[in-house]
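User: Some background: our group keeps a shared notebook of sequences we're curious about, and every so often someone picks one and asks for a predicted structure to add to the entry. Today it's my turn. The entry only has the sequence so far, pasted here. Could you supply the structure so I can complete it?
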Amino acid sequence: MRFPLTLGAKCGIICKDWKGFKMGWSHGVDTNRKEGDQDIGYGVAADCDEAECAVEIDRGLGYICGGDPYGGESGCGRFFCAGHLDYYFTNDKDEIMSPQLCVECGKLYEANGGA
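Assistant: Of course. Here's the predicted structure to add to the notebook entry:
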């Protein structure tokens, strides 16, 4: 069976289109949010989720607190610009580094010893 190829949004990645379903990470919907559904993916333009920050980002994994979909184990799953994401450590020896986290989640990560 042959699949027609279509050009993915924004980045030029070729995605297979099969029976109307486009496969890839450029666009999806997060249905797990308390506030309601939210479009996610690197093809979704957005502003930083930090209050009063208007830096333009996308809703891909490069901007998500926790570094994984829905925030992983340590993050909140909101999307922030590079100025509002950082890496945190559990001790002074910098032995255990967190995934990228917002300030609020970073403080919790350090307070809980990386948990």
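Suggested note for the entry: The CA atoms of residues 41 and 103 lie 22 Å apart. The first strand starts at residue 5 and ends at 7.
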